[in-house]
Design brief:
This protein is an alpha/beta fold and 423 residues long. It is built from 15 helices and 16 strands. The protein folds into 2 domains: 112 residues, Urease, subunit C, domain 1; 289 residues, Alpha-Beta Barrel (TIM Barrel), CATH 3.20.20.
Length: 423
């Protein structure tokens, strides 16, 4: 026991510990077994990492003890798709949609992404940083401990870099780990109307090299959609990103199927996101590429889409599913991952097990962070949430109730109702 005396934190009396282990890869078609449940468990933490996990009483001596009082504990949520950095709001579009206009109509009328581009261009780095920091605080209070953040509201070299600089400042100044994605191909900016080729050239010849040189993003993403970037353009951008070490992600099949998902194999897509209109060919390509299907039910709710992703086909092809907020000012102002879990069950009929795995370990795979997080295993980061619930099925069941008692990031309590920082 000597080696255990130096433990920093011991979490005891965990009623139900959800370890969600992933041995060889992301999890497709999970069931209850996949959750790696330990009833009446403890976790010891040292230097921000998980040291031991066990069952029953522990005789480990620790400097700090957290009594989970019989509640559930699970990995901190990983939000693998957000547009967290932006200026302005789009509540007018919310009203327009309620009155019958759809997202693409609003976009063609100058709303949508372009309106956020206008306000984001006008905002300073400091303004964007301060607003985004507040949003991260909210995300943290709902248990998010790692968050992907995209650029894509700058659409000029200067403003895309500005957004990515903000992402990197957030990473340095907030407890949540922020992972940046370059999304210069989110839309064609107004000044390139009728001249899309020049904009794509700018993305390829100027933005990608600069983003790579500054090491300011890990992934390159494209909005591959009718009326935005077609399949060939998307492939060109993503392949250029690959040359510069930016791994590929794709916004695809959100409104129409233009075959974008079939790019998964040729660009080795880490994830394909949205997937409302995806067909078998696309899923086969994803399977071959080992891509994760990132489903974004918040967007379906806010866009009042009747369409849902082909979940049964995704299961049949054994493509692993992650779920994410897609947090953005237009199509999904939802930031709480437990709410996203509820929506994935209610709108897409994911099982609570799929939702939980989608918000933790499979989300870690969608960010290539599976080695460090996403499950509770010895050696991984001690990113843990303790929720005032007795059973994991209650997480999606209690819609939009924040039941988080503690958010623990790298072994430190950083948020939660029972709060209080550890020494
Ligand atoms: O993922 N689909 C493209 N991008 C975002 C929407 C961004 C916006 O409307 O500002 C999405 O839904
Ligand atoms: Fe998105």
């Amino acid at each position: 026991m000597m080696e255990n005396l130096n433990c920093d934190v011991l979490i005891k009396n965990i009623g139900q510990l959800l370890t969600v282990p992933s041995k060889n890869g992301p999890i497709s078609n999970p069931n209850r077994e996949s959750l790696g449940i330990i009833e009446n468990a403890y976790i010891s933490i040292k230097n921000g990492e998980i040291k031991d996990i066990g069952e029953g009483e522990s005789n480990i001596q620790a400097k700090n003890i957290i009594d989970a009082e019989g509640c559930i504990a699970l990995p901190g949520f990983i939000d693998s798709h957000t547009h967290l950095i932006f200026a302005g709001k789009r509540e007018k579009e919310f009203s327009m949609r309620v009155n019958g206009k759809d997202y693409m109509e609003i976009m063609k009328e100058g709303g949508g992404i372009r309106s956020t581009v206008n306000s984001t261009r006008l905002a300073s780095e400091d303004e964007l940083f301060n607003e985004s920091l507040k949003r991260l605080n909210i995300a943290l209070s709902w248990g998010t401990t790692t968050c992907e953040v995209k650029s894509g509201y700058g659409l000029s070299t200067k403003d895309e870099i500005k957004m990515l600089e903000v992402a990197n400042m957030l990473q340095k100044n907030h407890e949540i780990d922020v992972i940046a994605t370059f999304l210069g191909a989110h839309d064609i900016p107004e000044e390139y109307n009728g001249n899309r080729k020049s904009y794509i050239d700018l993305v390829i010849n100027e933005m990608i090299p600069e983003v790579s040189e500054r090491k300011s993003a890990r992934f390159c993403d494209v909005f591959c959609e009718e009326g935005v970037f077609n399949k060939e353009e998307s492939e060109k951008v993503l392949k250029e990103g690959l040359k510069y070490g930016l791994k590929a992600k794709i916004h695809v099949d959100e409104f129409v199927n233009i075959g974008g998902c079939e790019l998964a194999e040729s660009v080795h897509a880490i994830s394909c996101d949205h997937l409302l209109f995806t067909k078998e060919e696309g899923l086969i390509s994803m399977k071959k590429a080992g891509s994760i299907a990132v489903l974004l039910p918040g967007t379906s709710l806010y866009l009042m889409n009747k369409k849902i992703p082909p979940v049964d086909k995704i299961r049949e092809q054994n493509v692993p599913i992650a779920i994410a907020s897609d947090f953005n000012p237009g199509s999904s102002p939802i930031i709480a991952m437990s709410v996203i879990m509820s929506l994935s069950c209610l709108l897409y009929r994911l099982t609570p097990e799929e939702a939980l795995i989608g918000a933790t370990i499979n989300a870690a795979w969608a960010l290539k962070e599976e080695r460090s997080r996403g499950s509770l295993e010895s050696g991984k980061l001690a990113d843990i949430v303790i929720m005032d619930l007795r059973n994991y099925e209650e997480i999606p069941y209690w819609f939009a109730q924040n039941r988080i008692n503690y958010v623990i990031k790298r072994g430190k309590i950083v948020a939660g109702k029972k709060g209080g920082r550890l020494s």
